[in-house]
Amino acid sequence: MNTTTHIRNFSIIAHIDHGKSTLADRILELTHTVAERDMVEQVLDSMDIERERGITIKSQAVRVMYDASDGQTYQFNLIDTPGHVDFTYEVSRSLAACEGAILVVDSTQGVEAQTVANALMAMNANLEIIPLINKIDLPAADVDRVRHEIEEGLALPADDAILASGKTGEGIVDLLEAIVKRIPAPKGDTAAPLRALIFDSYFDAYRGVVALVRVVDGHIDKHMKVRLMATGINIEVEEVGVRRPANLPVNSLNTGEVGYLITGLKDPADVKVGDTITLEKGGVHEPLPGYREVKPMVFTGLFPLDGDQYSDLRDALDKMRLNDPALIYEPETSHALGFGFRVGFLGLLHMEVVKERLEREFDLDLLATAPSVEYHVYLTNNEMLAIHSPQDMPDASTIEKIEEPFLTATILIPPDYVGAVMDLSVSRRGTFVTMQYLSTTTVEMKWQIPLSELIMDYFDQLKSRTKGYASLDYEFCGHQPSQLVKLDILLSGKPVDALSFIVHKDKAFDRGRILTEKLKEIIPRQMFEVPIQAAIGGRILSRTNVKALRKDVLAKCYGGDITRKRKLLEKQKAGKKRMKNIGNVEVPQEAFMAILKVDE
Hints:
By secondary structure, the chain is α+β, with helices and mostly antiparallel strands. The protein folds into 5 domains: 7-182, 3-Layer(aba) Sandwich (Rossmann fold); 195-279, Beta Barrel (Elongation Factor Tu (Ef-tu), domain 3), CATH 2.40.30; 298-371, Alpha-Beta Plaits (2-Layer Sandwich); 376-482, Alpha-Beta Plaits, CATH 3.30.70; 485-597, Elongation factor 4, C-terminal domain (Alpha-Beta Plaits, 2-Layer Sandwich).
């Protein structure tokens, strides 16, 4: 099939939990791509953690053959994308490999924040968008309201929106026919030199790096010599094939087709997602446009509980980096925790998922410190430092100003909860931007909020104060100056570097007081008294004590002389004093996460 007229490349995009993976299951079932005996729920969610949490984390690409009503057979390349705000970069990569997108909206929930964000991304990529209203089999389905929200909130015509149910399979044939009629065939020159886009990659322990590609011009054959343009590496293609959803080798991938190629490279960093593949000799000079390096937003320290696992952790991070180009890390040492890594993530869910995968897939026991963000610190000598960790904060006397990252948060809520969201956002140093009614039941609010406040517990609080109705999307809007200070926590007079954090000056006293109280409950009692102090520089803001465990040394005395008792008590006191000078305090994992919950 060297013409592209019978190829349709499309993506399924939606807010988290609107049923896109189930919809993909029905498409695979109806087109007999997956045998009935192999059919499981969420076929394309291959990781256990994806099925358990009911979320899609990695983009997936699968080829489907469909016999349309016009008597022709069409090749569909379906790309199932994540819906959570942390994984937006996965969606943007996948959209670059498509000509169309199916925008799935839950008929009971309506348009939510991530629906808006994903629809805008598809519009910016000039894709043909087919709105699909899902879950119409539910009693609470309100199709007319959702149609109105799609037209008002997204400015998309919804008269011809497809009504479907991923669960029962109703409306799926209408969807497949709409894909044939409404999504354009890929454009591309079959006779031109090879240009192919890498939109994802993963690591195979036996075959090396496997790249998922979309051929834009020309074709890729087995044993062809090609060049990766971003890294300048030349390779011989070991195998090309398509996913159905298992890998199926083919002789070549032609213009407009989507498939995989096995590079044989052993270093994950050599294959950059968004890179262009061309011929080693006689290839193109201009790479494909539109890709940028993804920037992590949240940083945390990951330390192995067993110091011997440090090299295992490094190998595990190397392997995960291949599937997850947004993951960055560098070695870090802590006096309290030993050797580990400072790891950058896209957001809190991304952090949880990566930590859980490291522990589960690589059998590591990890301790994570409280997350922080990237601060820009301007020194009095006009130098600018990018600080990811409170330990790196320079002396306060050398600092001219500190800037922190701000986000524009878009929040969609029912009108009853406007006051609750205003209270929450103002308490998190938010600045109100705009508010508009998308319909009688939905209000869109925009706020500028510091990222450091958002990663604490903003989303949890937002959900609980709006009884779960709020949906949130955010985008980075730059660094702004703030009055920030470094708050140290001292145990027995010694600062614990892993417990220190950066906080706004106005909140330092309250945060310090609450945290010392929390740590008092968490840190186990020792044989000696442990003072817990919160300090800025040399100034102590608050203090509590963990009382000492006390052995009754007078139990064996009865009656008799007071000097005997006093001698035993003095001896105990001297022993405790000596122990206090040399004793170390055991700090449990919960202490590091207590920093996150100081606002509750």
